[in-house]
Amino acid sequence: MSIGRFGMHAKIEEPKTQKSGQAAPVRVMVVDDSVVIRGLFSRWIEADPDLEVAATHRNGEMAVKDVERSNPDVVVLDVEMPVMDGLTALPKLLEKKRDLIIVMASTLTRRNAEVSLKALSLGATDYVAKPETTGQTASATDFQRELLEKLKLLGRGGKRLKRTTTVAEPARRMRAEVVNDPHKGRAEVAGVRPDMRSAMRRNRSVMQPASGKPEITLRPYSSVVPRALVIGSSTGGPQALQRVLTDARESLLNVPVLITQHMPRTFTTILAEHLHKQLQLPSKEAEHMDVLKPGHIYVAPGGIHLKIGKQNGQAVTLLEDGAPVNFCKPSVDPLFESAAEVFGTACLAIVLTGMGSDGAHGVNVISGKGGSVIAQDEASSVVWGMPGAAARSGNCSGVVPLDQMGAQVKRILKGAAR
């Protein structure tokens, strides 16, 4: 171990020994004004064979000065620090290393949640919510697991290694033509010509991707115009949600929109507020027994599962403080499963970017009840975990790039995408 030129608080680590044929460990820079947190994170990282500490710094200014020399793949960046805080350091770090993955780290205060969500719009890839005290952080095994999983997954791939293999290249070349023509847009997946439609319906499949990955089979859309839109998202989700809902805004007046975004408490409150400001539609954290109204957006509160039920013939929200599902709380599966039961063939679901496979079982239930599911494609996803699991299930009707998903949702809600 060597000491960096910025002094004892700017520690630079020696690289781990790499065995032949083994992938190089993901290099992580930890930036936090707490020496205890820096030490704790460093110990967790060094104990994982797939990670290594590139450097640790006590403020953003030191990190910016050192980022080119220490050359990390990922930076864990604290929000509140002296000299230079995380939000100020963020664009400076990206200016020096454009492909850098930055994960914001903050405690669960309203201000920190606001800053973290703003950081996502400025180029941060993701965030983690630190427990409120150092003692809680040291004993928080769930937090440790979440942090290390994100560092490995985002560092190994993230935005920099996305591939375009979710649909075949011939179909991909036709995407612009199909998406821009509402009559041609009736194919099962954005980017498939109308003359390919009959073959797709016969074998329910997209051609084998050039990479040799397993083909993605697709189902026809429901013939029923949707009466509800449910969305599941995780890593990269806040930006994706804003893009899809903004692009589809005029059609959202016809349906209630329910969202499960993997987020802790406070963050979900602010996400709902941001959606209200951007869309100028009623948007809130769901409360127990809210009657669902068209044109209204309901966000699952952090730490609570959001479901849909029926009361006196009306669809209502249900909040359930149960055990985590797929290690997640809120989880997408309870929302999707309950939406399928209440809305059946009139349910439209979207699975956006995110780690893991949460929502995959719910996708199967929605499909089994005759509803429709769209998954975000791999090339536009920050992490193609959740949408990839949905796409590979064979129960999606479309695998669509983010920049075309809003238009596709509009067509479906108007009954023009079948």
Automatic annotation (TrEMBL):
Domain Response regulatory: 27-145
UniProt keywords, alphabetically: Chemotaxis, Cytoplasm, Hydrolase, Phosphoprotein
Principal localisation: cytoplasm
Location of the CheB-type methylesterase domain: 220-416
Top-level taxon in the UniProt lineage: Bacteria
Enzyme class: hydrolase
SUPFAM superfamilies: CheY-like, Methylesterase CheB, C-terminal domain
PTM summary: Phosphorylated by CheA. Phosphorylation of the N-terminal regulatory domain activates the methylesterase activity.
GO process annotations (BP): chemotaxis
Reactions this protein catalyses: L-glutaminyl-[protein] + H2O = L-glutamyl-[protein] + NH4(+); [protein]-L-glutamate 5-O-methyl ester + H2O = L-glutamyl-[protein] + methanol + H(+)
Residues bearing the modification 4-aspartylphosphate: 78
GO molecular function terms listed in the Swiss-Prot or TrEMBL record: phosphorelay response regulator activity; protein-glutamate methylesterase activity; protein-glutamine glutaminase activity
Known function: Involved in chemotaxis. Part of a chemotaxis signal transduction system that modulates chemotaxis in response to various stimuli. Catalyzes the demethylation of specific methylglutamate residues introduced into the chemoreceptors (methyl-accepting chemotaxis proteins or MCP) by CheR. Also mediates the irreversible deamidation of specific glutamine residues to glutamic acid.
Family: Belongs to the CheB family.
Domain notes: Contains a C-terminal catalytic domain, and an N-terminal region which modulates catalytic activity.
Protein name in UniProt: Protein-glutamate methylesterase/protein-glutamine glutaminase
Species whose genome carries this gene: Pseudovibrio axinellae
